[in-house]
Backbone:
């Protein structure tokens, strides 16, 4: 069942191009995005004045990316919140609020309780979920299924990428229903989404240097991750994978926050994984991250740089350089996450741990 792979996690990483293709299937048409299963009327979607996204763990990281995409394409204010915190602060909700609950399993109790609270307050609730007929979609007004197929490994990989795809589709759909603001850009994103399975296949074929690097990093005392904009949730996700699989101290930071404290953590040879934005998509943002890389390097860090193909300028600041294919800025997490998944899986294996069944963790967390 592992399809020739040593672990389910490796198989599920390799399955990602197909999982994305399946999640896109039938939803990108010549007339735009078609989400027939989303049973909230176009009028109700036009009336939405505020979006909240609630989720836990990896699903929360996909929500962080979704916030950037939804706000940019629709101009609707969007907040993302840990499901376990949501109802305790008495959020402001009404019938013009759309609450999006993201969950692979559809059974996560924290997310379910956040959703129930939102419904009680008359908000409309839409689930993004990978498990047909599970509790969270059953209790929601509408559901957008990710078609990732069953995820067996405890650490989420293909579910994350398909959650991102579902969030992009939903963001584009909201923009479409409400009158597209950036028609050219949205068209380009749709075309690019169709190409992501092929780009990912190419990327997955080029991961040998990451495997080699993993052996080097397996004895590090800590590993830090930095990113900006959508690279920030990717940094958090890379750190989460490393914590849960390799039991190493790993932290993700917004690159700009480093100088406000965390830079004190860096000493000689601390590995810092740096997620660099596209110089084509946003040159200013890319240059800011490159300055942040220089700052950590000046303090002795070993910099492992994830950058876009063609960005030769970063080479001078990278002890190790991993290129990913060029895609529009908002879609970059579909590419930049992959080397971080492989890194965590390989480091954990090098340290002798079972990547499919990490200690203390369960695949679905049904207690609050
Ligand atoms: C991390 C991981 C967890 C889940 C979280 C939410 O690899 O798997 O952080 O993402 O427990 O689970 P779902 O998506 O099932 O609600």
Residues:
């Amino acid at each position: 069942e592992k399809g020739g792979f040593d672990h389910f996690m490796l198989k599920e990483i390799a399955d990602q191009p197909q999982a994305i293709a399946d999640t896109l299937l039938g939803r990108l048409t010549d007339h735009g995005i078609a989400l027939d299963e989303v049973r909230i009327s176009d009028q109700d979607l036009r009336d939405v004045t505020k979006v909240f996204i609630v989720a836990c763990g990896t699903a929360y990281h996909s929500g962080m990316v979704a916030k950037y995409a939804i706000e940019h394409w629709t101009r609707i204010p969007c907040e993302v919140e840990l499901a376990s915190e949501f109802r305790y602060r008495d959020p402001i909700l009404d019938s013009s609020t759309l609450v999006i609950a993201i969950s692979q399993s559809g059974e996560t109790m924290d997310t379910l309780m956040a959703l129930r609270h939102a419904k009680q307050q008359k908000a409309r609730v839409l689930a993004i979920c990978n498990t047909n007929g599970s509790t969270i979609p059953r209790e929601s007004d509408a559901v957008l299924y990710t078609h990732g197929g069953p995820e067996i490994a405890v650490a989420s990989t293909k579910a994350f990428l398909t959650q991102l795809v579902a969030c992009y589709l939903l963001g584009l759909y909201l923009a479409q229903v409400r009158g597209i603001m950036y028609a050219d850009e949205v068209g380009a994103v749709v075309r690019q989404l169709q190409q992501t399975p092929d780009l990912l296949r190419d990327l997955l074929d080029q991961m040998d240097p990451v495997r080699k690097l993993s052996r080097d990093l397996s004895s590090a005392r800590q590993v830090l991750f930095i990113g900006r904009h959508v690279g920030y949730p990717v940094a958090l996700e890379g750190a989460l994978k490393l914590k849960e699989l390799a039991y190493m101290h790993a932290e993700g930071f917004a690159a700009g926050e480093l100088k406000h404290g965390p830079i004190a953590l860096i000493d000689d040879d601390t590995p810092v994984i740096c997620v660099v934005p596209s110089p084509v998509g946003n040159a200013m943002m890319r240059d800011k991250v490159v300055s942040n890389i220089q700052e950590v390097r000046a303090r002795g860090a070993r910099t492992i740089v994830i950058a876009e193909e063609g960005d030769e300028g970063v080479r001078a600041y990278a002890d190790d350089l991993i290129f990913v294919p060029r895609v529009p800025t908002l879609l970059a997490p579909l590419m930049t996450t992959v080397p971080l998944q492989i890194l965590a899986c390989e480091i954990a294996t090098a340290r002798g741990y079972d990547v499919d069944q990490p200690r203390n963790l369960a695949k679905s967390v049904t207690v609050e």
Notes: Residues 56-59, 103-105, 108, 111, 155-156, 240, 244, 364-365 surround fructose -6-phosphate (CB under 6 Å). The first helix runs from residue 8 to 14. The chain has a mean pLDDT of 94.
